[in-house]
Amino acid sequence: MLQKEQILARNNVKTVSVDGPVLLYAHGFGCNQNMWDRVTPAFGATHKQVLFDYVGSGKSDINAFDAAKYASLSGYVQDVLDICDALDLRSGVTFVGHSVSCSVGVLASIVRPELFNKLVLLGPNPCFVNHPPEYVGGFERADLEDLLSLMDQNYIGWAKYLAPVVSAKGESSSVTAELSDSFCSTDPVVSKIFARTTFFADNRADLPKVQVPCLVLQHRSDTLAPVCVGEYVHTHLAGSTLKILDVQGHCAHMAEPLLVVDAMREFVSA
Fold first, then answer.
1. Lesser CB count within 10 Å: N end or C end of the chain?
2. Phi and psi angles of residue 147, each rounded to the nearest 5 degrees, phi first
3. Which residues contact 7 (CB under 8 A, 6 or more apart)?
């Protein structure tokens, strides 16, 4: 059993403390907690904010990476629950997840519904693989396998290819540069395992099990999570709220943070 200090160091946990409700931010694949830097200042005076890096990402302890554990999203779910336990968080947590972390938040809330008050899901995609005709996730399985093969053949080339696809901002934008730097700085072995876990997970059946209120923030034009996916998630999360952000790309919290902040404020204060 890991001690509190070991967990906080393992996941590079940072807490911005004020007396207030808790916002727990979880980053997407290939990213790190710094991607939330444009959002967190808006809640600095009203909320206790917790940020962390998944093991293998950012400034986490890469020595704690276990290929078997993190070959499933359950490994990432356990880390989220460990962090909450280490910080003695028992209830009232609003989970704010981006991309694959939306599924992590969904699963964590199913395991421990009493811990979470609300879920904010930015760019969720419970299944990236198309399953025609009933579900369009955005990708054919063969295309994702090709993407993973490119990681093996030319990791830096893969990172520089994927970053502008994710950002939809072009190669010269600051968001693309930040994503590319983050992708490139992640250990290739860790990154490939996290990529396979991310892109081949299928959590569609878990959505109806969620018991807490959810805000689905959908990008208007997003290669990684088309509008039909956001609508699917909204339909299968009972009582959820869907808000389509007028944003291109998969990273509104980086490209248009004020839109995310406004939507979050309305949701968390309701």
1. N
2. -65, -40
3. 13, 82, 83, 85, 86
Q: How many DSSP H helices and E strands does the chain contain?
A: 10, 7
| Paired residues of 93 in beta bridges | 22, 116
Residue with tokens 């400034």, as numbered in its chain: 59
For residue 121, name the pLDDT band (cuts at 50, 70, 90).
very high
Catalytic residues: 99, 222, 250
User: Crossing angle, helix 141-153 and helix 155-167, to 10 degrees?
Assistant: 130
Of 26-40, 150-164, 177-191, give the range with the top mean pLDDT.
26-40
CATH numbers and ranges of domains, the chain: 4-128+202-269 (3.40.50.1820)
pLDDT tens digits, one per residue of 158-179: 988 899 999 998 787 999 999 9
Sign of the Cα pseudo-torsion (233, 182, 27, 61, in order): positive
